[in-house]
Design brief:
mainly alpha; 6 helices; 68% helix
Length: 159
């Protein structure tokens, strides 16, 4: 369901508005919460669980923030606000990650799998295009640098 659909404008929205204005003041937020969950579940029900988790975390954080402010403890209120912001950022990062993963899967539909680079064999240093001197330094110099013959030994008289 989208905001510009006929069903939303002529069915869903009027029902929600009628319920909102009929329900007493204490229940108005609950009507909006349930209507929002129904609206989002209509499009993608998987994300309703994530939304409920986010709503629960933000509700608890808001209550904790209010208790710290009422107690006059602004340092704890700031830390609670920062923790809540980090958690909300992580939830958004998860959603973006899942969307990108879904888009990548959708883009691969109908695409032929690419053969592995090099025809399935492991690349060899000769295939890299390095000149002989570069290959020598890549292959032989580390042996000489790490070799114990190159490390000066302390004389036994100095010990």
């Amino acid at each position: 369901m989208i905001f510009s659909s006929i069903f939303f404008i002529f069915v869903f929205l009027p029902i929600v508005l009628i319920l909102y204005y009929i329900v007493p003041f204490a229940g108005k937020n609950l009507v909006l919460l349930i209507a929002s969950l129904i609206f989002y579940a209509w499009g993608e029900p998987v994300y309703v669980i994530l939304m409920l988790l986010s709503i629960g975390i933000n509700f608890v954080s808001g209550m904790e923030l209010e208790s710290h402010i009422n107690a006059g403890n602004m340092a704890k209120a700031k830390s609670a606000c920062i923790v809540t912001a980090v958690i909300n950022f992580l939830i958004m990062a998860l959603v973006i990650f899942l969307l990108v993963k879904l888009l990548n899967k959708l883009m691969e539909i109908g695409r032929k799998p690419e053969p592995p680079a090099g025809g399935g064999r492991r690349p060899h240093i000769a295939d890299t295009g390095l000149c002989a001197a570069d290959r020598y330094f890549l292959l032989h110099v580390p042996d000489h640098v790490l070799c114990d013959r190159c490390v000066p030994r302390q004389s036994e008289s100095a010990a």
